[in-house]
Design brief:
Blueprint (H helix, E strand, L loop, with lengths): L3 E6 L3 H16 L3 E3 L7 E6 L4 H19 L5 E6 H6 L1 H6 L5 E3 L7 H8 L5 E3 L20 E5 L1 E2 L10 H5 L3 E2 L2 H13 L4 E5 L8 H4 L4 H8 L7 E4 L9 H9 L3 E6 L7 H6 L6 H14 L4 E8 L6 H14 L3 E6 L17 H26 L3 E10 L4 E5 L11 E4 L10 E10 L2 E6 L1
Parallel strand pairs: 1-2, 1-3, 3-4, 4-5, 5-6, 7-10, 10-11, 11-12, 12-13, 13-14, 17-19
Antiparallel strand pairs: 8-9, 15-16, 15-18, 16-17, 18-19
Helix pairs in contact: 9-10, 13-14
């Protein structure tokens, strides 16, 4: 009788790629993979450990599966991912329901660990972070026509609020030839959209080639037959060059979309975060990007309530949101992460004030999004069909302006015409609801 293994992967797309590689290892070892983790013999939770809310989500998922284990529905529970790497044996000590904890440096041993767990329980496996396998067979968990391409792991940026360098280690690029080959394989399997990811995509190549090589990599990826859209996430603002902007502007396959986490704009807060720049330099950069790439969609992430953030600092931040009018924006409250430099900083913002500030930014951005959506009404845009929404009784998809699993969708009517998932169509935007556009096929 075959052993069924199920996995729940939490957190970012980078963690999702780790999960896909582990699923590939399990499939090659002959294990049956269960899409429903509750129906599996062995359950794996691939955790995120970036901020407190992510850890809480991971713990909640582990406890839900632990309840199924107690009922006898699953036989063993394994914890992998960033939280496993960060807290190691503390998870075994504090969560008796967990049978094994696996650090990222042992991901490639996941099949051996599943085999071992049938004979032994309550153990951990940790390899060096640098041993994290970034290539190999993947069981992709995205829709068939798009995929992530992880170009590096780890991070050399020393942002004081961030535990990623501690969890993932130093920045490590993958060879360009390996990445181009993987992109070709994905395209041969029907992938039309490739999303390029890393902790810091703009740093790509600095360790392998002695200089940053993201523009060169993107040019090579644009030569891969079968790919139609290439999107880049996690570009650090101070590393966005004219060379990179020219590639995005001039390569037809490049999505006119830049994800650029800036965190804050007040100079003193950015310095406390160990981040360069200020409101003036960021405003100048964004103006330059929009000049170089007309119609570009800009996404950013902001952090409020960092220790020392005054009301004046916050007002500068929210005024910046009003002024710049990002097409996409996320905001979260600073999380006190142990062993990060910011953990012991004085002048912490009280939780109630922090919540009000976060809500204020989200409300302001909602108004910005409404204005942007209204500006899209009447325009005709290319949309990749993702599926049919039976409740709304129409198709839905995304344009270059919506990153998969992050941004909104476009809902559109086809006047009865049947479409295949992954098919590209032209849609005229007629309306919007919340953050989603509504239209009809042209």
């Amino acid at each position: 009788m075959s052993v069924r293994v199920g996995m729940v992967s939490l957190g970012c797309p980078k963690n999702q790629v780790d999960a896909e590689l582990m699923l590939g290892c399990l499939a090659e070892a002959g294990y049956e993979l269960s899409e429903d983790v509750a129906m599996a013999d062995i359950a794996i939770v691939n955790t995120c450990g970036f901020i407190e809310s992510a850890k809480s989500e991971a713990i909640e998922e582990i406890l839900e599966l632990a309840a199924l284990k107690k009922e006898g529905r699953i036989k063993a529970l394994i914890v992998t991912g960033c939280m496993a790497e960060r807290y190691r044996d503390a998870i075994l000590d504090e969560m008796p329901e967990v049978d094994a904890v696996v650090g990222i440096g042992s991901n490639h041993k996941i099949a051996e660990i599943v085999e071992r767990i049938a004979k032994e329980s309550r153990f951990s496996s940790y390899g060096e972070k640098e041993n994290l396998c970034m290539c190999g067979k993947r069981i992709r968990t995205t829709l068939p026509f798009y995929s992530y391409l992880r170009i590096a792991d780890g991070c050399n940026n020393k942002c004081t609020f961030c535990a990623i360098p501690m969890i993932r280690g130093k920045f490590r690029s993958r060879p360009m030839e390996e990445l181009v080959e993987e992109a070709k394989q994905l395209a041969s399997k029907g992938v039309k959209e490739l999303t390029v990811i890393a902790q810091d995509t703009t740093e790509y190549g600095s360790d392998l080639y002695g200089k940053r090589m993201l523009p060169e990599l993107l040019n090579k990826l644009c030569e891969v037959d079968g790919l139609k859209w290439i999107r880049v996430l996690y570009c650090y603002p101070e590393k966005i060059t004219d060379e990179l902007l020219d590639v995005i502007a001039n390569q037809p396959k490049m999505c006119k979309y830049i994800d650029m986490p800036i965190q804050h704009v007040s100079k003193n807060i950015l310095r406390a975060m160990h981040r360069p720049g200020d409101r003036e330099s960021l405003t100048r950069l964004i103006s330059h990007i929009r000049e170089k790439i007309p119609g570009v969609v800009l996404r950013t992430t902001l952090m409020t309530a960092f220790p020392g953030e005054t009301q004046e600092n916050f007002e500068e931040l929210i005024d910046f949101v009003r002024e710049i009018q990002f097409e996409r924006l996320g905001c979260f409250i600073w999380s006190a992460e142990e062993d990060t430099p910011a953990f012991d900083l004085p002048d912490k913002v009280d939780p109630e004030t922090a919540a009000v500030r976060e809500e204020s930014i989200i409300d302001e951005q909602s108004r910005v999004i409404d204005m942007w959506c209204e500006s899209m009404v009447g325009k005709k845009i290319e949309v990749m069909t993702e599926g049919f929404d039976r409740l709304a009784e129409c198709y839905h998809g995304r344009s270059q302006g919506e990153a998969p699993e992050i941004d909104g969708k476009i809902f559109f009517d086809t006047d009865g015409k049947k479409l295949r998932p992954g098919e590209f169509v032209t849609v005229e935007i007629t309306d919007f609801m919340d953050c989603d556009l509504v239209g009809r096929i042209v």
